[in-house]
């Protein structure tokens, strides 16, 4: 039987506000335990929450960017449950009336390479809980409340994804978007971008959803993909061997590459939601929304389109360049300062520059070569001062801060030889030194052309203009014309 | 000294007839002598009080005194006071010393009042007799065999016994007005949102409101003005200017339309209480007000609605008392569930557990629609009833409590205790202000008359109450043994 995979996602993004969602405490990541938890975060008797407007603005930004319906009136609700890292015994969240209602979507590339809309069911504001630390406490549990009260936007998709690949495409698209919007650091390792994956399978053609499991503890795109692949196969095996899938929460074990049920016995949780009486309903006006609309940056899909139209880039290049806003800025800086073809610039950024950055674990903002510096190098390729091959050598020298492109060309004498007679002279010498090869070539072994080109380049330390070398060789080696052989 | 009004004392302080230190010492001495009969205080803050009194004298000396500088007061033990134990009447907070002051506490402190101590109350303000306090019952100074009312019973008894000039209270379903009535004093619960709830241990967040208990409406006007106002730390507090209540105390009540709801004056009502309250209305009529029969047709729904919403909110509000971060923690918990179970079952009293269970039940998925949701819908009708009434009248008048102070141990049946709130809970459900003032006695025990205004009509309530008190002397009577 052929099986279809159905996946929906709940993504929690930590909003990049300076202070917490209901208190003035700082949200900086990595501080000493409990140094960023005030009485409100700790749920002391008598304290009350006050909503952080910046978190609201960020939620609106997200709603606008995904074309969701921004609710003029949304309501905070208490989600009641006991856990030591949940200070008040309830989490302030939104239940029936979220700030972003249905209608929104993100566009991804589907498995058959067509554009596909993944619908977003809702997005709501809530507070994060603290962290329980189980190591180093001698059988006890340590509690760090620094994270308690950090604002979260929970983004719930419809079960619109049909494979691990589509899921990762959605996550990457979301990841790029929230960074463009500057509402989230989206650092999966630090937990500022967390996803729970709901997976089920069903026979192809079936319209009813199968029983789903929820996979937690996924902190990289790679693990998301691997966990889904494993879990899908596990569910199929389960059904094909005559069992049924149990609705449960699974944890992904990175080391064993497997999913397994969470050890904690799950009882049916009744969260006893009710409207948070300490906060008024959140009312938004058209003015507030349109004010935020004006602050929206160019979004990834818009930029991608512009790169294709304005710079004549292929889809693939445009997509890669816009994935990281900083890279796209870098690209445009180089284009602005250079007369080289945008496609050439894109190649260099996607190829050599990205390669160097990755190897040295640097972001593009930390690149030792500035956009302006790179644009000079691009110009020298364009105006044929240097060949592409020599450019790589210069690039490496620039990376090591040996100077500007022009300085390095000058210093190392790497300027391309484009003088016709100069090249002819060298060609003549090469042919004279290799009479056997010349004879062979003339008797039909034409692939020896490459050998001659190589010899010429060797003699010029790669500086000869390859196009000219080719032309001259083709003209001369066959006939010996213009050569005193 | 303890019989003078706040205004008179402020004048004496200003004119150096007496110092704040002397005044404070006088009241501390009274508390030490008299409170053994009442148990109105959980904590006395003698040292701090005398230190603050010195500061008050300096303020007076520098000409920086407010109308309240040097005036001895106390806070119900539900208000967080920095470095002073705050128990909420519960064992679970028996070791809790707040690291911060409630907004009300801060405001009165800035005005220069002298905090003498923390008053006893029902555990987490759950009760109408003060019997649920972990720190022992409070006795009513009019008859120590009777209750002072609750939950602000300690504040009420302390004011009635003139152990201080005024005390704060909180009122979720009548907890200021009912003990004020039973103890023969004045108690005002302002409009929901008028006073910041920040720093007050929460019971029912959508119902809780802080207020003032004093011998007179005139004293209440000064204290209420000081604690009122918007607080950015409480999102439900309302950003509206605070009127100068004191300046309007002597406004004329001529033409004031007073409504008497027929649902409150039925044959079931105690005849003496009915008569006392009705005579009170006649006093105001003599002063120029007009009396009108009105109807609050759905007022009988108040108790059932209240006893769904309040426990629901409290069950959630009290979840934070888990033994993890502060307060009482059971000994040697063997695991997490044991920590929760024993901390909470050892730390909470019966009434608290009862309400947490009811609240948890009415919020549970299967019963939410039938109870909590329905109660919220009906709550709106109570509000509508009052708004309809206020189209015809300016204020509404009826008794504060269906009975005078009852004996300790009476009303052991929970339902009969809950019915003690029958005349008070509807105001909390509608967010309206109300004031209880003494209007007579039955068998030597005080009767309370309640005036209800529309939202933010505290000025009018205090004005009418003051005019009533100028025409009567019930409020000047002091229980025997406490003169």
Features:
heterodimer, A: 485 residues, alpha+beta, Arc Repressor Mutant, subunit A, 3 domains, eight-stranded mixed β-sheet, three-stranded antiparallel β-sheet, 15 helices, B: 483 residues, alpha/beta, Amidase signature (AS) enzymes, eleven-stranded mixed β-sheet, globular
Q: How is this structure best summarized?
A:
The complex is a heterodimer of chains A (485) and B (483). Chain A has 485 residues and is an alpha+beta fold.
Write the layout of secondary structure elements.
The complex is a heterodimer of chains A (485) and B (483).
Chain A: E1 3-14, H1 53-65, E2 69-70, E3 73-74, E4 76-80, E5 90-94, E6 100-101, E7 104-109, E8 115-127, E9 131-133, E10 142-144, E11 151-157, H2 164-180, E12 193-203, E13 213-218, H3 221-240, E14 249-253, E15 258-261, E16 274-275, E17 282-283, H4 286-293, H5 300-311, H6 315-323, H7 325-337, H8 342-359, H9 371-382, H10 388-399, H11 405-412, H12 420-433, H13 435-442, H14 448-459, H15 466-479
Parallel strand pairs in A: 13-14
Antiparallel strand pairs in A: 1-11, 1-12, 2-6, 3-17, 4-5, 4-16, 7-8, 8-11, 9-10, 12-13, 14-15
Chain B: H1 6-14, H2 20-38, E1 41-44, H3 46-61, E2 72-76, H4 103-111, E3 114-119, H5 153-160, E4 166-170, H6 177-183, E5 186-189, E6 210-214, H7 217-227, E7 257-261, H8 271-286, E8 290-294, H9 302-317, H10 336-347, H11 350-363, H12 369-389, E9 395-399, H13 414-418, H14 425-430, E10 434-442, E11 445-452, H15 458-471
Parallel strand pairs in B: 2-3, 2-4, 7-8, 7-9
Antiparallel strand pairs in B: 1-3, 4-6, 5-6, 5-10, 9-11, 10-11
């Amino acid at each position: 039987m052929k099986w279809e995979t159905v996946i929906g996602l709940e993504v929690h993004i930590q909003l990049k506000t300076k202070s917490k969602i209901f208190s003035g405490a700082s949200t900086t990541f990595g501080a000493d335990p409990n140094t960023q938890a005030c009485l409100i975060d700790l749920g002391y008797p008598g304290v009350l929450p006050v909503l952080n407007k910046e978190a609201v603005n960020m939620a609106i930004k997200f709603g606008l960017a995904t074309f969701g319906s921004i609710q003029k009136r949304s309501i905070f609700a208490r989600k009641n449950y006991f856990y030591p890292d949940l200070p008040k015994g309830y989490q302030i969240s939104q239940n029936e009336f979220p700030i972003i209602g249905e209608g929104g979507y993100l566009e991804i590339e589907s498995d058959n390479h067509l554009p596909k809309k993944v619908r977003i069911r809702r997005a709501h504001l809530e507070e994060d809980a603290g962290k329980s630390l189980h190591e180093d406490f001698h059988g006890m549990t340590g509690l760090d409340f620094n994270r308690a009260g950090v604002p979260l936007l929970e983004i719930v998709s419809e079960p619109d994804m049909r494979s691990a690949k589509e899921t990762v495409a959605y996550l990457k698209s979301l990841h790029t978007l929230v960074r463009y919007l500057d509402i989230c650091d989206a650092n999966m390792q630090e937990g500022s971008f967390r996803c729970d994956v709901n997976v089920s399978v069903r026979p192809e053609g079936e319209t009813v959803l199968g029983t789903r499991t929820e996979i937690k503890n996924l902190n990289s795109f790679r693990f998301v993909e691997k966990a889904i692949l494993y879990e899908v196969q596990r569910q199929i095996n389960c059904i094909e061997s005559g069992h049924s899938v149990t609705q449960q929460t699974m944890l992904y074990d990175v080391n064993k590459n497997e999913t397994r049920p969470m050890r904690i016995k799950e009882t049916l949780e009744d969260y006893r939601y009710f409207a948070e009486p300490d906060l008024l309903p959140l009312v938004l006006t058209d003015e507030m929304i349109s004010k935020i609309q004006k602050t929206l940056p160019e979004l990834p899909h818009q930029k991608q389109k512009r790169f294709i139209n304005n710079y004549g880039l292929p889809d693939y290049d445009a997509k890669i360049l816009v994935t990281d806003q900083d890279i796209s800025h870098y690209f445009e800086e180089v284009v602005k300062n250079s007369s080289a073809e945008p496609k050439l610039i894109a190649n260099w950024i996607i190829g050599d520059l990205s390669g160097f950055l990755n190897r040295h674990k640097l972001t593009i903002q930390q690149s030792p070569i500035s956009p302006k510096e790179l644009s000079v190098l691009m110009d020298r390729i364009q105006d044929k001062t240097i060949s592409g091959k020599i450019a790589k050598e210069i690039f490496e020298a620039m990376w090591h801060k040996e100077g500007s492109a022009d300085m390095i060309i000058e210093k190392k004498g790497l300027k391309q030889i484009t003088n016709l007679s100069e090249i002819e002279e060298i060609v003549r010498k090469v042919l004279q030194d290799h009479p056997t090869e010349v004879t062979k070539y003339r008797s039909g072994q034409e692939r020896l052309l490459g050998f001659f080109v190589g010899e010429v380049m060797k003699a010029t330390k790669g500086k000869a203009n390859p196009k000219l070398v080719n032309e001259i060789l083709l003209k001369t080696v066959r006939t010996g014309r213009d050569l005193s052989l | 000294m303890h019989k003078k009004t706040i205004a008179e004392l402020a004048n004496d302080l200003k004119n150096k007839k007496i110092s704040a230190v002397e005044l404070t010492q006088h009241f501390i001495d009274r508390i030490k002598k008299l409170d053994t009969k009442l148990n109105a205080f959980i904590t006395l803050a003698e040292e701090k009080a005398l230190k603050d009194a010195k500061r008050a004298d300096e303020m007076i000396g520098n000409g920086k005194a407010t109308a309240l500088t040097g005036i001895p007061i106390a806070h119900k033990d539900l208000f967080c006071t920095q470095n002073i134990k705050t128990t909420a009447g519960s064992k679970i907070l028996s070791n809790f010393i707040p690291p911060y002051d409630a907004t009300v506490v801060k405001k009165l402190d800035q005005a220069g009042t002298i905090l003498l101590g923390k008053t006893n109350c029902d555990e987490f303000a759950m009760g109408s007799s003060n019997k649920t306090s972990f720190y022992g019952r409070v006795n009513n100074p009019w008859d120590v065999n009777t209750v002072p009312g609750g939950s602000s019973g300690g504040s009420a008894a302390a004011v009635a016994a003139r152990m201080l000039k005024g005390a704060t209270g909180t009122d979720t379903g009548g907890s200021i007005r009912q003990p004020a009535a039973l103890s023969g004093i004045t108690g005002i619960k302002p409009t929901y949102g008028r006073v910041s709830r920040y720093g007050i241990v929460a019971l029912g967040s959508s119902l809780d409101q802080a207020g003032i208990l004093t011998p007179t409406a005139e004293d209440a006007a000064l204290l209420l003005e000081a604690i009122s106002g918007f607080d950015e730390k409480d999102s439900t507090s309302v950003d509206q200017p605070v009127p100068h209540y004191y300046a309007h105390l002597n406004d004329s009540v001529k033409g004031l339309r007073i409504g008497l709801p027929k649902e409150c004056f039925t044959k079931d009502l105690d005849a003496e209480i009915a008569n006392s309250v009705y005579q009170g209305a006649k006093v105001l009529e003599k002063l120029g007000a007009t009396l009108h029969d009105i109807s609050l047709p759905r007022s009988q729904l108040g108790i059932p609605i209240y006893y769904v919403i309040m426990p629901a909110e409290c069950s959630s509000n009290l979840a934070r008392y888990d033994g993890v971060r502060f307060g009482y923690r059971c000994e040697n918990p063997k695991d997490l569930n044991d920590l929760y179970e024993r901390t909470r079952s050892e730390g909470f009293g019966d009434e608290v557990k009862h309400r947490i269970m009811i609240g948890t039940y009415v919020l549970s998925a299967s019963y939410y629609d039938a109870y909590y949701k329905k109660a919220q819908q009906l709550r709106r009708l109570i509000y509508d009833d009052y708004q309809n009434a206020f189209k015809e009248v300016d204020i509404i008048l009826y008794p504060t409590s269906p009975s005078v102070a009852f004996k300790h141990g009476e009303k052991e049946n929970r339902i009969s205790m809950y019915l003690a709130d029958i005349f008070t809970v509807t105001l909390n459900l509608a967010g309206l202000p109300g004031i209880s003032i003494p209007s007579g006695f039955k068998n030597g025990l005080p009767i309370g008359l309640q005036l209800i205004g529309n939202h933010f009509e505290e000025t009018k309530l205090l004005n009418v109450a003051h005019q009533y008190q100028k025409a009567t002397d019930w409020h000047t009577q002091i229980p025997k043994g406490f003169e």
